[in-house]
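R.M. (postdoc): so does anyone remember the format we settled on? I'll just put the structure tokens first.
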């Protein structure tokens, strides 16, 4: 598992995400997050006002989609978080976001 990954959105913007050590976000700051499987495929993208909430669907992601890593990106601005989230979901089409 890489300490950082870069994800490209539909807009062409590139976002750098940091590995959450031991699967724990380690902060209560707002931001975006992704669950990634062993092949490096993003299976879920999310946003939260408190990154502790990033683990809300972690068990499902592991059991149903083989998620192995949680990556986070601090992003305090709600508008920026929403734009980044939409940009990544459109580009990456994570399986767990398809029903959202």
């Amino acid at each position: 598992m890489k300490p950082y990954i870069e994800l490209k959105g539909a807009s062409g913007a590139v976002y750098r995400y940091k590995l959450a050590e031991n699967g724990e976000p380690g902060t209560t700051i707002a931001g975006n997050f992704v669950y990634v499987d062993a092949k490096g495929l993003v299976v879920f993208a999310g946003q939260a006002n408190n990154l502790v909430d990033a683990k809300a669907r972690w068990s499902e992601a592991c059991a149903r989609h083989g998620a192995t890593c949680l990556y986070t990106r601090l992003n305090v601005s709600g508008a920026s978080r929403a734009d980044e989230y939409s940009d990544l979901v459109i580009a990456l089409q994570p399986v767990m976001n398809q029903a959202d």
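R.M.: ...and that's the designed sequence above, right after the tokens. Also worth knowing: The first strand starts at residue 4 and ends at 8. The chain has a mean pLDDT of 95.
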